[in-house]
Amino acid sequence: MKRIFATMTGVAATALLAGGCTEIDQTAKTQKVYAGKKDERPYDGKTFGDDKAKWQQALAERNRGQNEYLRTEPAKK
Amino acid sequence: MARMKFICDAERCIECNGCVTACKNEHEVPWGVNRRRLVTVNDGKPGERSISVACMHCSDAPCMAVCPVDCFYKTEEGIVLHDKDLCIGCGYCFYACPFGAPQFPQAGAFGLRGKMDKCTYCAGGPEANNTAEEYKKYGRNRLAEGKLPACAEMCSTKALLAGDHDSITSIYKTRVSRRGKGEEVWGWAMAYGQGTEKITGDAKGGTKA
Amino acid sequence: MLLTRKSSGVVSRVNRALGTMDRRAFLKRSGLTVGAGTFAASLPYAMLNKAEAASGDMTPAPGAKMEVKRTVCTHCSVGCAIDAVVQNGVWVRQEPVFDSPINLGAHCSKGAAIREHGHGEHRLRWPMKLENGKYKRISWDQMMSELGDRMLKLRKEAGPDAVFWVGSSKHNNEQAYLLRKFVSLWGTNNCDHQARICHSTTVAGVANTWGYGAMTNSYNDMQNSKAAMYIGSNAAEAHPVSMLHMLHAKENGAKMIVVDPRFTRTAAKADQFVRIRSGTDIPFLFGVLYHIFNNGWEDKQYLNDRVFGMDKIRDEVMKKWTPKAVEEACGVPEAEVYKVAETMAKNRPSTIVWCMGQTQHTIGNAMVRASCILQLALGNIGVSGGGANIFRGHDNVQGATDVGPNPDSLPGYYGIVPGSWAHWAKVWNVDLGWLKKQFASEGMMTKPGMTVSRWVDGVLEKNELIDQDPNLKAVVFWGHAPNSQTRGLDMSEALKKLDFVVVIDPYPSATAAMAADVRKDGVYLLPAATQFECAGSATASNRSIQWREQVIEPLFESRSDHAIMYEFAKKFGFGDQLIGKANGKQNIAIAKKNGYEEPVVEDVLREINAGTWTIGYTGQSPERLKAHMRLMQHFDVKTLRCEADVVDKETGYNIKGDYFGLPWPCYGNDKLKHPGSPNLYDTSKHVMDGGGNFRANFGVERDGISLLAEDGSHSKGCDITTGYPEFDHVLMKKLGWWDELTEDEKKAAEGKNWKTDLSGGIIRVAMKNHGAHPFGNAKARAIVWNFPDGIPQHREPIYSPRPDLVAKYPTHDDRKAFWRLPTLFKSIQEKNKDISKDFPIILTSGRLVEYEGGGEETRSNPWLAELQQENFVEINPKDAEARGIKNNQHVWVKTPTGAKIKVKSLVTERVAPGTSFIPFHFSGWWQGRDLLDKYPEGAAPIVRGEAVNTATTYGYDSVTMMQETKTTLCQVERA
User: Is pTM, for the whole model, over 0.90?
Assistant: First the structure.
């Protein structure tokens, strides 16, 4: 981990020299472009019929399953 | 838009490996490939804590930065996925990843020889949702079924949380306020940038690894 | 760690980043060669091919028939619900059941890997027999005919007591019950199951203290605790999902204490960890009690009203267990003990949790009673949030104990006395006269059988010293591992000496390999179906009963256990008796399967309902249980109760008022609609709301002191506001309640008590009309005078590291005929009193989260096996250094039996200097030798290792024959 941070700091320092006094972003920007196949969005297709809200609702429902307080303290429901 | 994240609550994690086998089961991940695993500090001593680790789906993912063939992409929800058809199995991503997430199967149970394999947040990959092709290369796409990652859904103590940022931080906040401690979230600063390691409060204690 | 493919350099990088190496890192690293070399190439293909071949495609094809079957995990007693997704008969997925009030969707590694049972790559596929040292496939017909004839011949020549039947806690209730009946019809009491070596001391100790031998409260109820003390329980590994409830409670302020010789993963979560020397629970518990009495923290009113004998306990504790004596015995300084006492006293309700750490000792029965006494002193029993939360092991060990194959009782703890036989013969629709003739004699019918912990001695002991005519000549392992029993070397001798060995199991288990190692023939293997291949009910530790739907058809040629029982019964000439077919009546219907017949499980449960009045297994009809499984989400997580009107669509049954799974006792027949009992002995509730009080089971007075509860102490709303004895027809008449029975009920109840009245009328009138408890209202007994040590006494283990304390706290005297066998205590302890010179390290054993029991099943599951690839011994750095042992080396662990086992060293402070720990789930190696070639081809588990019990020593509990596995001695040497 430390090694990675060291590398990043190095990149930032070089940028600072080149830019003189100009204030610039201190994190390394990855200007990379994905070269692979395009993926479908999770709510594309027959299950959610491109209805993003419906999909988000489904996930929110699943999230409730991870919060046992909703069962132990039903008042919070 | 929802930003999907993982939180592992070290106060709750009992290192039972349920997340590990849930993942193996759901995706039929072969022997020797571990999309998720447990890391324990101070094993057998007071202060022993465990954390479940997989791909954190970083905001500024180092794997993406170093990939020579640009096979990585990030979904609208912030999930980092990759195209196995493009991957050349070079292993740079493994060296870049602070979490040791990328795995390299010996042979082709997941498609072609030596392609990198990692946690997909149960979101499959660049094939049509819930098709045989997607399953064979990337495992199941639970997200497209409206479900969350199997590891988190089955966690024995609900230590491992998955979901969009707001939902899981709200669950975590409740716990932190009840405990009055432990606001640090392991791995968050590393994955999602400085300033995100604490979810709430200024209480003492915590689990920073 | 993670990177099985990577070079060790990569592993060390991750380790460096985290600054440590944990147990898994150690194991993964050591597993590099095994995992990558042997399996990585072949296994994934095998797995995928099998699944795909079966299903065509792992993803749901459009229009494919998808079914969801609700089942329950079979790997521990928590009872985690699972939704199994089945496509074209193949189990393709599993989904969490968030609705379950017990596990709320959560699983440990075993539960999350349960679907592998649908693959079963390492199962026994067809019947096999050992011939010239090799296992050979035979047909079911040949098996039933050849083995059946052989058993009948043995029965004729040597008598029914020559066979020992080892049943299983992994059978469902119906199978366990049917097996007890089967063994009775065969004509012996020589049967047992895992409970003997798991919680027999608890069941005996606890039942004799207050009435029932079971966990008093529930995992869920721990959410209501303000403090919890785990003593001899590593719940984080043995009952992981129970930790969901505990950690929730802790988050909300509950204090957690762990007392153990090891700093376990449970201890890692505790507020206070106390390290005791293995086997010294009584000094510690009485040390805690000392501070409770000393500070006046005991619940005086409660003790006066509801407890017998605490004054004598107090005298004993104050005199004998001073802080100095406590520290000398268990090694814990006064301040730590005081802190525990204070936490438990000032944070009530406080609960206590114990498991094998307390039970598996020669004085296990006394240790568990010391725990009971502590809780009684604090007034914690019969209180939500309090209780004795005794976590059982296997998924149905509670149920198998309640209604299954026990050598000293019939289903429902009806003792093997003539009255009980008459009761059950009637329920079974079996002629009592015929049944008596099945036994060697009527004397043998009422004599407790041998125990699974001692079957080896039943084979090897001199015939004139055993308390039955023949020695054991055959053993049937029906769902039980051999490596969970101690004294492996002797077991090997016994396996050699037997006429023949029968193994009925989905996994042939280590028995097949161990037997083939010493025999050329005379071993029969029968492939049994798992609980996912049949339906039936299982009782979780909290006494809730859950119904499993059948997920898939039996794999390969396997058959369900109850089908195998029925086939054997027909062969042995008591097929009709097994299903209660006589006089134009038939209790249990028969279903035709492919080439064989199977008793209908619902009917078996109805028969259980018809006879098991003692512990209230009468109200849990299949219909009620199934409705609960469909409506799980309506039960409250903290109380387990359904408060609203909810009607089950399929049965029309309204679950309002029920507790989830109708935790026994659920008294009366299902029409009484008793809701089940969430917390036992709880006087704050009406008996028809699951309330109760301590049981009147030990007479009405002792030494001139009344054993009944004092005035004013009774369950809520009871018409009798003082203590009273159990109900029978005489008491009913005296109270003037007799006429409240219907005419039919009167006929059935005349001359009977509440346990034998098959109409349930006595129970109905007492409970519903008068709020009275059918088993009476009495005091709990702090002194169990019918046990060897009425007041629990500390006695050093048979193999003790402390000769000075052996002199001070010696063990019991030897016994001549105890469960049909001579049993040694003092003579062995005396002989070995200085053995710690040569074997200076305490050896204790326990569980790993990834594996269960003997481990053959879980070690056959690649998703689990990958996580624990070798057996190991935990040894303290100090002891390791003194022996020149480094971490992760092969070492020999040697014990006084002369056995030596080869395991990897794990150098860790988890154990104290002078203590070592080995998990007990491994088998398949024998003193350094891999037995792979002794297994039937293709049926060896993926991971094999040395069984700790190959090396464990002699020592048995003075009441129940529990084996002493938690404390013995060893030496560790470099290999």
Answer: yes
